[in-house]
Specification:
There is one protein chain. With about 350 residues, the chain is α/β, with parallel strands linked by helices. It folds into two domains: about 1-145 and about 290-340, Medium-chain alcohol dehydrogenases, catalytic domain (Quinone Oxidoreductase, Chain A, domain 1); about 150-285, Rossmann fold (3-Layer(aba) Sandwich), CATH 3.40.50.720. The chain has helices at about 40-45, 95-100, 150-160, 175-185, 200-205, 220-230, 245-255, 275-280, 295-305, 325-330, and strands at about 1-5, 15, 25-35, 55-60, 65-70, 80-85, 90, 110, 120-125, 130, 165-170, 190-195, 210-215, 235-240, 255-265, 285, 315-320, 335-340. Strands 3, 5, 6, 9, 10, 17 and 18 form a seven-stranded mixed sheet that branches. The longest helix is centred in the middle third of the chain and has 12 residues, at about 220-230. The termini are close together. The model has no long low-confidence stretch (mean pLDDT about 95).
Length: about 350
Amino acid sequence: MKAAIFHGPNQPLKIEEVETPQIEAHEILVKVAACGVCNTDAHYIDHGVPTFKKPPMILGHEPSGIVEEVGADVTNFTAGDRVLIPPVFSCGHCDNCRLGRENICLNMVMLGNHIDGAYAEYTKAPAKDCQHLPEELPLEESSIIADAISTPFHAVKNRAQVKPGDSVVVFGCGGVGMNVVQIAAAAGGSVIAVDIVDFKLETAKKLGAIHTINAKGKEDKAILKEIRSLTGGGADISIEAIGNPKTIELGPAAVKAGGCHCQVGYTHHSVPVNAGRLMFREIEIKGSLGCRPVDYPKIIEMVRTGKIQLEPVVTHRFKLEEINDAFDLLRKGESLRSIIVF
């Protein structure tokens, strides 16, 4: 099969012929329909963030596809089924899994990190972790449910716990942040979207933001003043979804006394925290990683019924041979979510 091979940081991915994965009794082999292009992969390629499996390896953790083959012990899938593969596979028996927090499984295995991923014609996964996709959903665009939609869903519902009427400021409206906007709006939040790209802010408005702030060239104080003016002194909740040290600092400062900041974006940089402000104003800071398996059926149903939209977020499509062009576009900040289609 053809696959895009990651040979190490600061190198383009190379299209090569490799062996098709061989499945074990509990696994399914999936013919990949599409796989999302994520900043997590860019961190491996551009910033030297190490993968657990040493290169050469296959990246890609946001796939949808068709079941090609099932292992001997698999009973929940048959060949020909439409399937969504989540980015993380849980063990099911560690302390966190037993508490229902499988997204932070102590023995987690991440597709395209611990094991070969889905920038390839075929990939394999444990059947227990995979999700059926309804016929009504577009197979290729649905790939982004795996991460770009499920991660914001977990952040909004389970970590930030957005409730109807909450004021929510979202920093960063990329492939993840845009879905934070639409899911927070679907949850009843009054959303303020902050970014530096006009088309992203225009899309955020279409997906439910009631106010937008273009932060390009603005000082931090001016951004915070505008947020406080729009929210009567500070938002109930801030969610940072891009991993920029500047906006990570702004997040806790943008909420009112008793407010909550939820950190979704990743950065390898250290970020200063105003401990006095956190203490005196009783501000909460919560991290958010991935999504629990129990939430995927709810997310898929929200997409099926139109409460979460895919089309406005999938802005570009590339063939496998064009994968480096997709990452160039991501680096320029000119896409929301690109998908590699097969």
